[in-house]
Predict the 3D structure of the following.
Amino acid sequence: MEVRPARRGLCPSDIALLLEIYRSAKRVEAAFPQVHIAGNAARRLIAAFDMPIEEEPPLAAMRVRGRA
């Protein structure tokens, strides 16, 4: 997991908490076999953290779609 710049709503304590969750999932993944439910959950959580972040559309595009 790479640490990216904080986005709206994420303060340093939030980022620290997310990093701890990610590290805990890595430890669980290493400790349990692939068939164990905890290992499966850890792998899914890690995959969610490792997904690329979609950039937000510009505000003008949001207005056209009626979301702003």
User: Anything to note?
Assistant: The chain has one domain: 12-64. The CA atoms of residues 2 and 20 lie 13 Å apart. The helical segments are 12-31, 37-50, 59-64. The mean pLDDT is 78.
